[in-house]
Amino acid sequence: MLKISFSRLARPKTGAIVVTAYKGGARTPSLAVLDRDLRGMVGRALKSARFTGRAGEIVELLQPFARGPSRVLVVGLGERAKLKAATFETAGGLVAARLLSSGESHASIMLDQVEAAGLAAGEPAARLAFGAALRAYRFDAYRTKLKAEEKASLKSLSVQCETVSESRRLWAGLEPVADSVHFVRDLVTEPANILYPEEFARRVKELEALGLGVEILGPKEMKKLGMGALLGVAQGSVREARLVVLTWNGGPPDAKPLAFVGKGVCFDTGGISLKPPGGMEDMKWDMGGAAVVAGLMRTLALRKAKANAVGILGLVENMPDGNAQRPGDVVTSASGQTIEVINTDAEGRLVLADAVWYVQDRFKPQLIVDLATLTGAIIISLAHEYAGLFSNDDELARRLSEAGIAESEGVWRMPMGDAYDKHLASAIADMKNVGPREGGSITAAQFIQRFVKDVPWAHLDIAGTVWINEARALHDKGATGYGVRLLNRLVADHYET
Ligand code: BES
Ligand code: MN
Ligand code: ZN
Question: Are residues 368 and 452 in contact, defined by beta-carbon separation less than 8 angstroms?
């Protein structure tokens, strides 16, 4: 990850110099001094570029000095009155995107004194660093022919500010998050021939070194627990299923844990209800929910969160095969409820049914949040802007919505109710695994709810947010790592002692 440091304001002697600008009003001190020393060159460049200081604007000057610093970047922060955490994250991300493979190895951002309503002292500088660290991510593991000029070059960033000690303290809480977002993106990006359930579990096992408990259950143990729904999905694959149980006990010993459950379908062909070929390669990231749960638990351990949490990863591969389950098969879940599998492509809910049941049975959690790339329908509803939120508890739903706003990882609450649930009636078993096409994300949530006892529960359908085929402020096109920030914030704001 990008190496971040904080220091007092002082003209950097090498690398890229970044200064900030606001829309309207006076120049920032660093910009004014730099422009004076460069005899007006910066001001003329901004004018030529029609730079106004809008958030998201950036102008770059190459080699303005005869010796020393190699370039100057001016980045817009928008209007002074409208500054918020996301403004600084976006600016940091913009700088990182611009410099990542520029040939530059070090950059210094000169952040003059800022006052932003609602932001703690030190937060602007820390959020700049956070945005840059999040954006400075590449996955080059399988590129053997990268030319020198295509390789990532940016290694370190110093943020100069007047809040060095406060910013360092805040960064200590943000660095584990950024680092775990990268961990999640790696898992999500790996192809399914490399990252199958056993390998996923092996990589998560390494988190024991951080003080997390990591238990791995195989098919035999799961069979004993009666997990016929999860195992039914896995039975068409030569890759064995795994259930990973992560525990972090940073809270009081008697406090009930928070439970996080992730769908980990390492590849989803649809099974016998085979998906069409176009875009099927995307289904390598159908394990995104499990990756986020692993990333969250990693974050909690790294920052030694004062909370008890358990993470469950339901890891399978959904393949068509002579041994695969058939449409119409009836499976018995760990809860004892029977399910008629009408469509083998609605497999995520089958995995979650057993994983959600297991975590309640064993850990008696105070709440459950499950995350899953569950339905294509949620992408039709919300595109890539929000995850779908389904919940039986208004307070938990509100807390998640607020955390989403604070961390720029939005959730949008969707309705639930008996009118939807009744579509799951089966002629032969307790329920079927699909409803009609209409409201497909909602009936999927209703299905999961049938395995939730009397406990606050939220389901996040993250099919639209795990992977985005367009670069944005804090990620390149590809895996986003969505969810780590959201859930870390939920825990930090409400469940730490
Ligand atoms: N993993 C898919 C959902 C998905 C689709 C995620 C596209 C990301 C992008 C899930 O297992 C699935 O196949 N869902 C079906 C459900 C249907 C059979 C009721 C879907 O959404 O079509
Ligand atoms: Mn599917
Ligand atoms: Zn799936």
Answer: yes
